[in-house]
Backbone:
């Protein structure tokens, strides 16, 4: 069961259906079947249950009627909200952040990505350990039955904190290693592909370099940073870096964990913002990516807005005319079809002066 909550008079209040559509795609990426949805509009979220009590009762009836074994909320749940909802619904409850972490855990392949995912998982888990020990409350109370649960939780917390400290130290080493590699390649112009998940960054990398990058119509197909070299014109060679995609409500601790990877975008000579022009909500996706880039970009590097999947855009000529003058170095392409000549021409125009200066 998917559950979406919108706040009256809040930005995006009318986009609950679109947000649940995206959540459904996230859940589908985990190979889980969606059996139903529930929405509620609130003046303010409940501190105990997020939803109103009447809506929780309605949700519990739906869960039983549809034989659902999992309820996924599109919004972050506090540890107490998650615990109270599991009691009320009598089934497992997850929030959007936990689903994203699960996807990342299954997609991580390199040692670096696995370190980053484990760090994010432990940061998420630490304040929620009590939920794992809820079964202790069902044990008959009395002398000798009150201490062990608390002791075990504290033991687990200490173990997690020690592991977190070790992971952070290892990721510092990863950052240093990346810095050394970047310094060795400082004379080669770098293009960093950034954008919303499933916008087509890996398809563009493959079209430019012939790389065997994973191409999959699922969210977060790419977690490991992939770097390849390409000739955008005779005598002009560039490094192309494919980075992890962004998404609405991306957990903050996940962004922090992937800081070493995102630094590849921050240190690039040219940022290529790949946009899925065929998506009905592409403008909101673009804004989400811009928010993250604002933290990484020093404002001095070149930026290209690459509108991808133009082959499936309705009235592409009208789309071009509407957006061309509103975005920096707007270029239009279909990476899956290999139609990237216009994009390459834009890159040549931006890179040539820098290459000649070097």
Residues:
């Amino acid at each position: 069961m998917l559950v979406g909550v919108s706040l009256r008079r809040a930005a995006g209040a009318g986009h609950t259906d679109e947000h649940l559509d995206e959540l459904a795609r996230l859940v589908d990426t985990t190979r889980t079947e969606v059996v139903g949805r529930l929405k509620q509009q609130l003046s303010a979220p409940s501190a105990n249950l997020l939803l109103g009590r009447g809506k929780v009762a309605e949700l519990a009836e739906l869960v039983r009627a549809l034989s659902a074994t999992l309820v996924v909320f599109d919004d972050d749940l506090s540890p107490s909200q998650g615990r109270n909802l599991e009691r009320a619904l009598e089934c497992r409850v997850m929030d959007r952040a936990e689903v994203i972490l699960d996807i990342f855990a299954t997609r991580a392949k390199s040692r670096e990505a696995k370190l980053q995912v484990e760090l994010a998982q432990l940061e998420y888990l630490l304040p929620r350990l009590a939920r794992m020990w809820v079964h202790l409350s069902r044990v008959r109370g009395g002398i000798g039955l009150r201490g062990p649960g608390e002791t075990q939780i504290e033991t687990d917390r200490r173990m997690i904190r020690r592991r977190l400290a070790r992971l952070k130290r290892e990721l510092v080493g990863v950052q240093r290693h990346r810095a050394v590699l970047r310094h060795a390649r400082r004379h080669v112009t770098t293009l960093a592909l950034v954008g919303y998940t499933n916008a087509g960054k890996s398809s563009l990398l493959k079209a430019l370099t012939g790389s065997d990058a994973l191409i999959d119509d699922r969210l977060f197909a790419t977690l490991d940073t992939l770097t390849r070299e390409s000739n955008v014109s005779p005598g002009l060679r560039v490094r192309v870096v494919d980075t992890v995609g962004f998404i609405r409500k991306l957990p903050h601790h996940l962004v922090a964990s992937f800081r070493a990877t995102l630094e590849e975008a921050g240190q690039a000579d040219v940022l290529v913002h790949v946009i899925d022009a065929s998506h009905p909500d592409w403008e909101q996706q673009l804004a989400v990516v811009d928010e993250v880039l604002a933290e990484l970009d020093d404002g001095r590097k070149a930026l290209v807005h690459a509108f991808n999947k133009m082959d499936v855009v309705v009235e592409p000529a009208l789309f071009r005319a509407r957006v061309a003058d509103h975005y920096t170095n707007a270029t239009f392409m279909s990476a899956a079809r290999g139609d990237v000549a216009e994009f390459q021409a834009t890159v040549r125009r931006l890179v040539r002066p820098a290459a000649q200066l070097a």
The longest strand covers residues 226-233. The radius of gyration is 23 Å. The chain has three domains: 2-102, 108-168, 187-357. Residues 134-149, 354-358 have pLDDT under 50 and may be disordered.
